[in-house]
Amino acid sequence: MERLIIEGGVRLEGTVDISGAKNAALPIMAASILAPGVNRIHNVPSLRDITTMGRLLTHLGIDFMHDNGTVVLDSDNLQTVEAPYELVKTMRASVLVLGPLLARMGRARVSLPGGCAIGARPIDLHIMGLQKMGAEIELSEGYINARAERLRGATIYLDIPTVTGTENLMMAATLAEGVTIIENAACEPEVQDLANALVSMGARIEGAGTSIIRINGVDSLNPLDYRVIPDRIEAGTFIAAAGITGGEVEIRGCRVDHLESVIAKLREAGIHIEHKPGRLKVKGPERLNAVDVRTMPYPGFPTDMQAQFMALMAVSDGTSLITEGIFENRFMHVAEMRRLGADIIVEGATATVRGVRMLKGAPVMATDLRASASLVLAGLVAEGRTVIDRLYHIDRGYERIEEKLRGLGARVRRER
Ligand code: EPU
User: Is the CB of 28 under 6 A from ligand 1?
Assistant: First the structure.
């Protein structure tokens, strides 16, 4: 199993380029199911989750190629409507094929994802929405079996603004008969990017990026040729890396407008961040301030930055309360950070972090994608050597992480 070895204590300096957004690329790849023909998606990062989605689409009969940041998907000949357990269990986002399969093929059989490291994460709202659109859905033997001659437009209220749920329903509604309105929709930039991609295929969508999305169904769509947005969480993680090491880093190719809550909180923590179009100049302070944060749906502070923020707070001057408002079990990194000397206690959805002057390197284990990013940050500032085991988690969501960090002067290497 691969491990990342970090010798801490280097101030990061230099320039880093941000890759395309994983969580925008995944639904846009699934959208290729909707239109027969050759779909091209640009700025797609080389990541394990992208490869998994590629394998799933290949299984469905779609030709998949990923070269030099461009994914080409030929979806002329769909051969099956089944997303098997073996693929879905390795990546929950596989459920994104449910809406498009049902819309184009009138049928879908998708394995239920089951639990994961960060919580139970049900998909009841995806199912409820499709049922409102006229789908007959039966759950049996761990699979969702869905059927609909043609989906019908409906008004769907989501109890929780689920991101992939909104995406699944929006994709399904593009080919439905009539108008679908999704109320309390997720407003995340990735939802908006998917909507833009769908519109470029000929879909009629208004309001994406707000909590009410209106989709006018059309009879058919054209293949995609689309460039995905930069990854706001990768950008946020590199701002945090500059901040925690007291370094000076230019972050290129990010969308500052997608990072407002993250920038606001990191500034409050004492990190100096200057905007330029398409890039940020970041300078870390001698010592970070302790600030409280609560994760919320967009435009609130993202849950995908919670663990990284905790790493900063672990070495801040004071006590910080970090409240997780999205997932019930997203504090798996706490026990590992404690191994590095962090002083953190968790009670319910809130972690109390008492900043310490210094973390000390130790062997730790990555438990999920963002947890592993937080351990990298802690390792960068810790005295001595940190060894992060189960590195495959980080490869799900950070493209060439050690190469990018080394480019900023960090002493990191991968060991097989
Ligand atoms: N929920 C329900 N029922 C549903 C759907 C969701 O109760 O039918 C609950 C979830 O259990 C959770 C909350 O709603 O408590 C929000 O979950 P959401 O559905 O929005 O999450 P997701 O769509 O499964 C996406 C990202 C995650 C990110 C979350 C929140 C993708 C592929 N994944 O997940 O990204 O944390 O939104 O912003 O877009 C990551 O990249 O590391 C990651 C986990």
Answer: no
pLDDT above 90 for 328:
no
Q: 130 CB less than 6 Å from ligand 1? A: no
Tell me which residue has its CA closest to atom 24 in ligand 1. 164
What is the SS3 string spanning the chain?
A: CCEEEEECCCCCEEEEECCECHHHHHHHHHHHHHCCCEEEEECCCCCHHHHHHHHHHHHHCCEEEEECCEEEEECCCCCCCEECHHHHCCCHHHHHHHHHHHHHHCEEEEECCCCECCECCCCHHHHHHHHHCCCEEEEECCEEEEECCCCECCEEECCCCCHHHHHHHHHHHHCCECEEEEECCCCCHHHHHHHHHHHHCCCEEECECECEEEEECCCCCCCCEEECCECHHHHHHHHHHHHHCCCEEEEECCCHHHCHHHHHHHHHCCCEEEEECCEEEEECCCCCECCCEEECCCCCECHHHHHHHHHHHHCCECEEEEECCCCCCCCHHHHHHHHCCCEEEEECCEEEEECCCCCECCEEECCCHHHHHHHHHHHHHCECEEEEECCHHHHCCCCCHHHHHHHCCCEEEEEC
- Lowest model confidence (mean pLDDT) among 50-54, 72-76, 104-108, 392-396: 392-396
pLDDT tens profile 279-306: 999 999 999 999 999 999 999 999 999 9
pTM for this one?
0.97
Query: What is the structure's pLDDT at 115?
Result: 64
Span 143-185, pLDDT tens digits: 999 999 999 999 999 999 999 999 999 999 999 999 999 999 9
CA–centroid distance, 121 to ligand 1, in Å, is 7
Write out pLDDT tens, residues 23-45.
999 999 999 999 999 999 999 99
State CA 163 to chain mean position distance. 10
Which phi and psi (to 5°) does residue 53 adopt? -65, -40
pLDDT average, residue stretch 83-109: 96
Residue with the nearest Cα to atom 16 of ligand 1?
162
- Catalytic positions are 116
